Amino acid sequence: MARRATSGGSAGGGTEPGAATGSGASGSGTTGAVPERLLAEATRLFAEHGYDRTSVQEIVEAAGVTKGALYHYFGSKDDLLHEIYGRVLRLQTERLDAIATRPTPVTERIAEAAADVVVTSIQNLDDTKIFFRSMHQLSPEKQKAVRAERRRYHETFRALVEEGQRDGRFRPEPRPDLVVDFFFGSVHHLGTWYHADGPLTAEQVAAEFSDLLLHSLLRP
Amino acid sequence: MARRATSGGSAGGGTEPGAATGSGASGSGTTGAVPERLLAEATRLFAEHGYDRTSVQEIVEAAGVTKGALYHYFGSKDDLLHEIYGRVLRLQTERLDAIATRPTPVTERIAEAAADVVVTSIQNLDDTKIFFRSMHQLSPEKQKAVRAERRRYHETFRALVEEGQRDGRFRPEPRPDLVVDFFFGSVHHLGTWYHADGPLTAEQVAAEFSDLLLHSLLRP
Amino acid sequence: MARRATSGGSAGGGTEPGAATGSGASGSGTTGAVPERLLAEATRLFAEHGYDRTSVQEIVEAAGVTKGALYHYFGSKDDLLHEIYGRVLRLQTERLDAIATRPTPVTERIAEAAADVVVTSIQNLDDTKIFFRSMHQLSPEKQKAVRAERRRYHETFRALVEEGQRDGRFRPEPRPDLVVDFFFGSVHHLGTWYHADGPLTAEQVAAEFSDLLLHSLLRP
Amino acid sequence: MARRATSGGSAGGGTEPGAATGSGASGSGTTGAVPERLLAEATRLFAEHGYDRTSVQEIVEAAGVTKGALYHYFGSKDDLLHEIYGRVLRLQTERLDAIATRPTPVTERIAEAAADVVVTSIQNLDDTKIFFRSMHQLSPEKQKAVRAERRRYHETFRALVEEGQRDGRFRPEPRPDLVVDFFFGSVHHLGTWYHADGPLTAEQVAAEFSDLLLHSLLRP
DNA sequence: GATGAATGAGTCTTCATTCAT
DNA sequence: AATGAATGAAGACTCATTCAT
């Protein structure tokens, strides 16, 4: 009776620990459970060619199953995308919540949060790429759900900025919401220029981005 | 057979003065020259629904012409997109070049350049939206051309950062190329959150973004 | 492999007493034996959406079982339809035979037979609806079987008409077979206009139809 | 600009005089205008296999065109069906209106109307078959439109019955609306038993049906 | 310069049925 | 007796593009 993945839970059951999809081997297609395989191949293909340019046929071929199998687990192509979003959002929200509630100075927490989101965005670079290009291709209702989750994430981050301003450690001028949009623009943009085989490791980029953010906030 | 607009030059001829597409009139479709109308409606529709989700039929209906007319002026749907890119790139490159060569301190030039690209991105918000979502939907060769133009733009900006670092006005630590990617991520992201009817004017956002960038670079 | 119900006999065994489907309870799905429940829900859904528009999935969901269960009792979707036909045909044939052999004047017998088929058609309105819309969706061989049973029914009715004409009670002009087609057209059509919550009871319609038939036959 | 057939007008333009589809040659497919050919083949196939069992592919193959051509003229498969309905309804409504307004006694008018609808139903037997089997496969809104037109037809016929009852020529007992449903049931049923190569001509059936109707109404 | 009918490959999705368990 | 994952063929519909006029 557990047909069709609901957007809340993971489709296949397991907790798929550390399923970094950024590295993207080109379609092994025959290992692991079917829903996971479908999700992994879909992620890879959506990142590579875009959501609209990736046909369901291509996905099932890459996963080594038939279309019927895909529609047994996912209600629609759109559902696949939603599931991919859900996975990333859950991961990043959990990590941010963990960092935001630590008993350390804001400065430190915001620096860590910034660095962390850069690292996980790079580790899941395919998801990151998909996120901004394809959000508007979700059905309106699913888009709304994703935006709501995303907003919650942003609000947590913004609260850190506000805390720093109340503390007096940060300059009072910048509007916290603009700071958030400013920084996450940079993060979301990673997918368009970062390459795993480039000169910089994820940690190096994270350190620099975190540093740029902090300097833009701190009192001189 | 020699009837099509070459993809490099502007299709209709003129310099389309002040063709701000951000405000988005909802498809009057009967004023002005045919190629301009097509380009304007295509821009609006691509921004609203995405390139792949916009059919040629919708574009010609919005522009009040027939398909034959579109294919008379543009070689393909893809050509329309390329033309939109060209327009925005030319505009921003010209403006940056003008600002970068002014005889003022780097600090001032970079602040102005940053503010200016925010303002023109907001004024042409539809183009901005299209830019990131649809790049990969261009044909490989056109993509290459756009990327090359974009790179030139980034290099000019990066040169300003480097100049500031050589000057000693900017902190030496940040890698100039990362600064550029950091800042332009924020700019490109404008399309996903800025709304003309929101609480902030283009100039306010420009001032804040420019300020954040400067503070992230200046020596404390 | 010998596990499927043969298409001739009733699938579940018993005589399904008073299984009037016309009233159409809206899919409780958990009372009674599985095959009866499947048949009842299938009848309701076929009448509502048509045979081709009703998926096996919908039937089993309405009946609260799984597909495996359906295919355990019925060889195919087509078998379900055939079973529905069988049920209604058996019922009406039995009743007509009983009436036709009574020791009363033809006039009376034909009036009763006409009224009776109207009442039972209305009581099983879902079956009536299905009968005409879906005959051609049966497999050719099953179609042939149903037609044969139907023909037998019509012949019994026609014999009454002929008897009335030989008697001299009925006008000699009408061709008995045309009379049968004339009248049963009206009966089959009930499904397209009769509603249980309309102004007329089944008995009122039966009385009128019977009256119209008799007047069309009787000598003036 | 005249894309897509509107439900009011005939798709191809012409008035297709006397386009009797009942005889049904098996798919010449290359004569006449494209929309007419599509409509003719669709009518034949829908009558033969039912609406749901006829694929768009089969229709276009029979008509000797491609799917694109079909969708150039008709918005959907559903539209084809609606167009077929419109054609028949227009024809029969016109004829009934003409007969109903003649300056002859009701008895005569109703006899002629009854005979005429039988003849035209037989001449367009494919349409007649389709009418009852496939009505519920139309989209709800189109169904509503067809029902409204049908109701108007029935009301005109019912008015004749009422007139005859007021006149005193008809028995007062039968409810006029039931008479209409009674008779049109018979007419609609023609498609399930009448064959052009059977023993009866359309006119013979028409005469008998008309006679049966009249005798059921006239005072004894 | 412009039309619009026609193409044909491609899209996502549905579904009756099977089979290992 | 019953499950439910998986199949594979078929479904309706879309769309960028061409070409005779």
Automatic annotation (TrEMBL), chains A, B, C, D:
Family annotation (Gene3D superfamilies): Homeodomain-like, Tetracycline Repressor, domain 2
SUPFAM superfamilies associated with the record: Homeodomain-like, Tetracyclin repressor-like, C-terminal domain
DNA-binding region ranges: 55-74
HTH tetR-type domain ranges (all copies): 32-92
Spans through the membrane: none
Keyword Manganese: no
Domain of life, source organism: Bacteria
Pfam families, sorted: TetR_C_24, TetR_N
GO molecular function, one term: transcription cis-regulatory region binding
InterPro entries the UniProt entry points to: DNA-bd_HTH_TetR-type_CS, Homeodomain-like_sf, HTH-type_TetR-like_transc_reg, HTH_TetR, KstR2_TetR_C, Tet_transcr_reg_TetR-rel_C_sf
Protein name in UniProt: Transcriptional regulator, TetR family
Species per Swiss-Prot/TrEMBL record: Actinacidiphila yanglinensis
